[in-house]
Amino acid sequence: MIQELHEVQQDAGATFELVADATVPVSFGNDAAAIQAARQGVALVDLSHWGLLKISGDDRLRYLHNQSTNDFQRLKPGQGCDTVFVTSTARTIDLATAYVTDDAVLLLVSPHRRQQLIEWLDRYIFPMDQVELKDVSSESATFVLIGPESDALLQQMSDEMLVEDAYASHQPLMLDGFKVRVAVGNGLALPGYTLIVSASNAAKLWQALTAAGAISMGDRIWEQLRIRQGRPVPDRELTEDYNPLEVGLWQTISFDKGCYIGQETIARLNTYKGVKQQLWGVRLQAPVEPGTVVMLGEEKVGKLTSFTQTEQGAFGLAYIRTKAGGKGLKVQVGEVEGEIVDVPFLTHDYPT
Asked: Global pTM?
């Protein structure tokens, strides 16, 4: 069924590569038009290679509440949130988006962490827990719409619209005759939506969305956008070297909820303002390989984690020691000059 989607995408000019053992459209030969659509129109991205996990059973909310950083006990059907799964010492495993339905929670997880998270979550289910885990990635397709015209496109395709506009709020809608779960937000700090549809209807929905005016965007431009936005991903910004406060994912953390895996470390870092390094954007004068050391004079102050080339020049993400400074700091990244800048997806301030 996903093969049918790929055939539709190939007919539209897609080229494919393997990403996390999945075949992914990396470009539609229209990269400039796709980035322009994300800024001024509506771009359509296939994230079906990401993982979709279904957690059901009467204890599902309590269970997830105890396994990750956000407050699941407050969530009602139709609501959702971003949350971070961390180790017992609060090192990052993955940033996930949760959608609470009437009888389950759907977790959209990074492609590189799908299997690891299933095994991780299964490890913490005890005999008395009424919790069931299922990987439903192959049963569904996930698309995202990016851009200020996303609302207009959905209104064009459906007589219904989302009742709420809070981030990660969601509901099933009929889009051009297909039942689709539509959620506010697209994993970036840009306007748009996440669409989850059955794999059997994926190709038809993709055709309907592009016929309605969405511009297909490949994974290569999605990667450029996520770096410019500051969206962290596993094996780059999310590793066991960093905790969620260093990453800048304050919005995913509840400091009022009870105990959860990694909670003691995160609470201590917050209470004593112990964040020693922070993730920032860095505007670069030339390309630099990820992993390159960031220097301030003769002092090592950080490391570049991601790099992309944009129309505005070279850009990356880097962890910088808090004491070295932040926005506006001039640094040396290998042989290249750089300037530390804000990125919209991340925050750096302790909550008041």
From this structure: 0.96
Q: What is the pLDDT of residues 158-208, one digit of tens each?
A: 988 776 789 999 999 999 888 999 999 999 999 999 999 999 999 999 999
Q: Tell me the per-residue pLDDT of 292-339, one tens digit each, with 9 for 90 and over.
A: 999 999 999 999 999 999 999 999 999 999 999 999 999 999 999 999
Both structure tokens of 125: 């289910």
The CA-CA-CA angle for residues 13, 153, 145, to 5°, reads 60
Q: Give the number of residues written for the chain.
A: 352
- Report how far apart, in Å, the C-alpha atoms of 164 and of each of 39, 78, 80, 167, 174 are: 24, 9, 11, 9, 17
Residue 179's nearest CA partner among 162, 197, 164 is 197
CA–CA dist 152, 142 (Å, integer): 20
Where does the chain show beta strands of DSSP type E? 15-19, 22-27, 43-46, 51-56, 80-86, 92-100, 104-109, 132-135, 140-146, 170-175, 178-184, 192-198, 215-217, 277-284, 293-296, 299-310, 313-321, 330-333, 336-341
The amino acid occupying position 315 is: F
